[in-house]
Amino acid sequence: MSAAAVLARPETLPQTAAPLLSVEGIHTYYGETQVLFEVSLAVGAAEVFALLGPNGAGKTTTLRSILGLTRPKRGRIRFAGADVTHWPTHRIARAGIGWVPDDRRLCPTLTVAKNLSIAEKRTRFRSWSLKDAFGIFSPIELLMHREAENLSGGEMQMVAISRALLGSPGLVLFDEPSQGLAPKIVSDVLATIRRLRDEGVAAIVVEQNAEIALSVATKAAVLDRGRIAWAGEAAELRDDRALRRKLLGA
């Protein structure tokens, strides 16, 4: 399966019929230790892609490679028609890739309002306003003057997702979005991913809980020890218990 990751400056992104993101045979290392081996995947516009696998399989490293945080030594990443393999992370973000990390990474001593305001960007993709964010997560409006360190885990996740949206993304990378959250908040997060898909925003969802990820995904891939072990339609993996057990042990 060919793969997806091209990031470009908003003003230079060419029109293309290719996938929004294509990751093409990347090899990524931490120091001398190789973590990803010829990983390829492709994500279309307004598509939700589930990236699954056990701990240590390379899921987060794949996201970090796409973002330019851990740059692959070989292979290519394209986003919206541009080769962004060697772009710095800030330029990749300006091109329209948002990130919701597993630990949220809010600035703890800043207010919610400040955390959100410093994230606002304009790209070639749809612009999102605070009003839009409040429409998805209404509690945030009442939290704007609270410091981030005083938020609950669910509140932090709502702010982290809103922060990603205010960057006007065409693609959002979700790393373990259900981690540590109450079932009601998980349900809200999944509903938000579906809404973003309907609004034309693509997503990659990295999850330990395959059932959660597959409930919103259109395509999926399973990583095993840094290699793609399976890729295909999310519905196939969701509906085939034997295949899921073989690949994921669940």
How does this model look, in words?
The protein is of the alpha/beta class. It has 9 helices and 11 strands. Strands 7-8-9-4-10-11 form a 6-stranded mixed β-sheet, sandwiched between helices. Strand 5 and strand 6 (82-83) form a beta hairpin.
Summarize the structure.
By secondary structure, the protein is α/β, with parallel strands linked by helices. It is built from nine helices and eleven strands. The chain has one domain (4-248): P-loop containing nucleotide triphosphate hydrolases (Rossmann fold, 3-Layer(aba) Sandwich), CATH 3.40.50.300.
Q: What characteristic shape results from the CA principal axes? A: globular
Most strands sheet = 6 strands, mixed
Query: Tally of extended strands?
Result: 11
CATH top-level class: Alpha Beta
Q: What is the CATH fold-level name?
A: Rossmann fold
Count of the domains: 1
Strand order of the largest sheet: 7-8-9-4-10-11
Secondary-structure element sequence? Answer: EEEEHEEHEHHHEHEHEEHH
Which structural class do the helices and strands define? alpha/beta
Percent of residues in beta strands: 25-35%
> What do the pLDDT scores average to?
91
Question: Helical region count?
Answer: 9
Helix fraction bin:
25-40%
Termini separation comes to: 24 Å
The residue ranges in which pLDDT falls below 50 over 5 or more consecutive positions are: 1-16
The radius of gyration computed from the alpha-carbon positions, rounded to a whole number of angstroms, is: 17 Å
Q: CATH architecture, please?
A: 3-Layer(aba) Sandwich
The CATH superfamily bears the name P-loop containing nucleotide triphosphate hydrolases
